[in-house]
Amino acid sequence: MINLKSSYTQFIKTEAKRLGFMSCGISKAGFLEQEAPRLENWLNKNRNGQMSYMENHFDKRLNPTLLVDDSKSVVSLLLNYYPEELQISDSYKISKYAYGQDYHFVIKEKLKEFLFSIQSTIGEVSGRAFVDSAPVLDKAWAAKSGLGWIGKNSNLLTQKVGSFYFIAELIIDLDLDYDNPTTDHCGTCTACIDACPTEAIVAPYVVDGSKCISYFTIELKENIPQEVKGKFDDWAFGCDVCQDVCPWNKFSKPHNEPLFNPNPELLSMSKKDWIEITEETFRAVFKNSPLKRAKFQGIKRNIDFLE
């Protein structure tokens, strides 16, 4: 007799690969018991800074069955974004995830096709796709489904490919075979904690979001506080320091998603080019880029702060 659950699971994992996802893990939808006190404590200590949206939908963040009726499975997916080429050294730095087109659009398209493919093959399956824009604790789900472990820098890490990838989910009302979590392989390493320019990793596995360079350069809408002046190590949008120093990222391999390829102008922009950038050039070079989130004014503010 054919085990439908297993054949559906196999189909979903094969389809994820076909769509270009690096890996796919599945866990049972339900309340994230271990995460609840951790999230509450983090919010109580105001480690979200001005990211007040982190306080919304507390219950939904911890329980996907409140987001998707009758949900049974959380399908977690990883998509590589590690670039083949980096910016020139005399430049203000932007996070590698922002080199190409905005990942929200790229991944949403893949997830739409994924869900359609599941429905076409398996039948009536309801579900929703998520790309870090809804109250879903994606790193917790990815870890629960064995795709990696949460490292001391609070990023998801894997032994084979490090951490330069996006995480997305499909939450569906279909029973599947579930994966098991993997073990933590950070050991005694403290590379990320030692290297963080603003000391935002306040303890192993705890990041104070309100001290992170990514927060200051992207999320913070007012002036950057003077007490962190001189600590940004030339990061103008986001920051990759805790990932760059992680030993597991020695295994990062370039992605093969054309939409994540950078505009060639971006890679060759010098500090002088960044200082002199006009709104017109900004719009042309960063047409569908995540940099639009900080807007031209925000990038100018960041660069003025770095000078």
From TrEMBL:
Active-site feature positions: D132
Similarity annotation: Belongs to the QueG family.
SUPFAM superfamilies: alpha-helical ferredoxin
Name the UniProt record assigns to this protein: Epoxyqueuosine reductase
Gene Ontology molecular function, alphabetical: 4 iron, 4 sulfur cluster binding; cobalamin binding; epoxyqueuosine reductase activity; metal ion binding
Residues noted as binding tRNA in the record, renumbered to the chain: K221
Cofactor requirements of the protein: cob(II)alamin; [4Fe-4S] cluster
Localization in the cell: Cytoplasm
Alphabetical list of PANTHER family matching this protein: EPOXYQUEUOSINE REDUCTASE
GO biological process: tRNA queuosine(34) biosynthetic process
HAMAP family tied to this protein: QueG
Binding site for [4Fe-4S] cluster 2: C196, C212, C239, C242
Primary localisation category: cytoplasm
Cofactor mode of binding and number, as noted: Binds 2 [4Fe-4S] clusters per monomer.
EC class (word): oxidoreductase
Recorded catalytic activity of this chain's protein: epoxyqueuosine(34) in tRNA + AH2 = queuosine(34) in tRNA + A + H2O
Pathway: tRNA modification; tRNA-queuosine biosynthesis
Domain 4Fe-4S ferredoxin-type: 174-206
Transmembrane segments: none
Job of this protein: Catalyzes the conversion of epoxyqueuosine (oQ) to queuosine (Q), which is a hypermodified base found in the wobble positions of tRNA(Asp), tRNA(Asn), tRNA(His) and tRNA(Tyr).
Pfam families: Fer4_16, QueG_DUF1730
An example Gene Ontology CC term for this record: cytoplasm
Subunit and partners: Monomer.
